[in-house]
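COMPLEX REQUEST
Ligand: pyridoxal-5'-phosphate
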Amino acid sequence: MVDPAEVADRISLVRDEILRAGGVGVQLVAVTKSFPRDAIVAAALGGCDAVGENYAQELLAKMEEGVPPVDIHFIGGLQSNKVKSIAPYVALWQSVDSMSVIHEIAKRAPGARVLLQVNTTGEQSKGGIATDDVLAFHDAALQSGLTVEGLMTIGPTEGSVSQRRDSFTILRQMVDELGLSVCSMGMSDDFVQAVECGSTMVRVGSRLFGQRLA
Ligand SMILES: *Cc1c(COP(=O)(O)O)cnc(C)c1O
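STATUS: Structure written out below.
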């Protein structure tokens, strides 16, 4: 069960923490994966800037149930064979990390807004483009006509505060070097550090909706 009033309270608490960390104009993306359609409704009512979904099938099922008008960001691992079915619903592709996905999005949603996901931790288990390859991917995405708004990263899973900062600082520097505007970093456990390091967009799930069962 999702209680919209409770979600609204948690949204304001997160926004307060963002402000205290020095974040001005930071976008709050409510991550609704594994939560029912009602979580999207609550996020929209509570004034989140967007909703983040990770799985194509789950997103399509929720769209079929009907959701209020709110921007949907795709933030999960992307396979090119999934792009076509979800393209009508995705306002921002946050997890672009392969050439095949770049070409598929360019084909199915010409000019779409994208972020390139960067692996700033070196962890094999994480998706994302190796830091050395980001420039080549950026140029390829531009050449295919996509609108590259910025970069996204997932901080270290078990990292110390200083390891988190290292990861976030790397992403912020790359965003600046490329002259981009969106720096998507920070989740429930590390969004304060991410904002302190210059995040412009945080992706928060469990802090708003509770623990995920899946
Ligand atoms: C699940 C997920 C989040 C949100 O994680 P929480 O810890 O629940 O806030 C953010 N970003 C990505 C890419 C995710 O997969």
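REMARKS: The pocket of pyridoxal-5'-phosphate is lined by residues 31, 33, 54, 75-76, 154, 187-189, 203-207 (CB under 6 Å). DSSP finds nine helices and nine strands in the chain.
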